Amino acid sequence: MELVLKILKDGLMAVHVPYACGFAIILLTIIVKAATYPLTKQQERIQLETSRLYKQAGVNPLAATIPVWIGLYQALSNVANEGLLSEGFFWIPSLGGSGISWLFPFVDGHPPLDWSDTIAYLVLPVPLIASQYVLMEIMNPLK
């Protein structure tokens, strides 16, 4: 997956796409989701029966896709460790983050990063929570 991520980033940079690294991550995520989509798309009758069986057995049906997501996480971690995620993405100062000391300790009433970068990182939980809520609503069976 790391190789695919690097190829996507290089391809986007070759065509002068701004925020190439961020868009490469988004594209890789879409590719992984598209590749796993046939595994999750079933006919309604079969899906309902399978869901009933999963509930009886106490099994999570998404457990089969966990290795794919672990691979995606490892690819992103390796790319971050190599320092390839240092560019920004829209309002985010750096895709690699600024380490664990980006917020504390305050010096003379200011965070270690300037206020604009600190606020940019503090805003990140908002779209995360919103997207998780939307996903939860989408995954809820019809009532």
TrEMBL record:
One of its GO terms (biological process) is protein insertion into membrane. Its main location: membrane. It comes from Arabis nemorensis. It is a multi-pass membrane protein. GO terms for cellular component: chloroplast thylakoid membrane. InterPro entries: YidC/ALB3/OXA1/COX18. Belongs to the OXA1/ALB3/YidC (TC 2.A.9.2) family. It is found in: Membrane. One of its GO terms (molecular function) is membrane insertase activity. The chain crosses the membrane at residues 12-36, 57-76, 88-107, 119-136. Keywords: Membrane, Transmembrane, Transmembrane helix. This is Uncharacterized protein.
